[in-house]
């Protein structure tokens, strides 16, 4: 391969209104995978850096790579997948504990815990336990405030639903589907669906990497509008057409309400449809155009109040996620000086040899 591979940046898990929510089972299809390396070990042992380094080498050699980012810290990697090789490296530690499903045949455990000075870590036992437990308490606070934010969002969504001119929206959406789906032929296979997060609530705010996984040029379409639920419903309706025709589809879910959708991607058609802003100018529809403006205006004080409270709650979420990051860095400070990173580097080289020789 002569040119570099493409890096897709994704989120397999998220901080949501119902707690930490995982789509890690969709990182790679274990029945199709050639090899999955489950990386175990505590904070600061180099799991993320190991995956990043392996990923960089293979991307430089021309292989595409999916970098699955951590919702707690988007600078950290929880998994890296090489679709052309059907190989993945996955962090198998909490909160996304993963155990081998097909030991030896597909899965292989890599234990970086073998490369730390256990006696030195025991000397900081009390501080480590206290800090890890404290992070658990902070995350409970995060999820409580996300739950409250969802309730406030529900209040606004109730108003959007009431003022929606459903028949007008449905007619316009029907016109688009008739125009767009006419030339899409069916396949002779069953559709396979994959689920991930399209964005994440992190200590750096609400982050998405849509510009990496929605990179389909003129075949990226945009649904605009204020209502999360209305846009998600339209994406759901569009997805049925692709599924019926047998196309594989990836659903990218919303971090506040994980069963709602931000984007869908149909790789076989080089097509993506998203609700994320600043990704595409190919607007399908603006759902706000189908609101009863006079009725919506009568609710302005209520929607303004609810949106203000929602933003306030989210600021508290981000501040607490910053606390988890500071606390995590403190925990890592006990581990990093006591890790034999030269041995981790040697393991990385052996791992690369195995992957490239597979």
TrEMBL record:
User: Which top-rank group of organisms is this from?
Assistant: Bacteria
Listed SUPFAM superfamilies: P-loop containing nucleoside triphosphate hydrolases
What is this protein identified as? ATPase
Species of the source: Alkaliphilus peptidifermentans DSM 18978
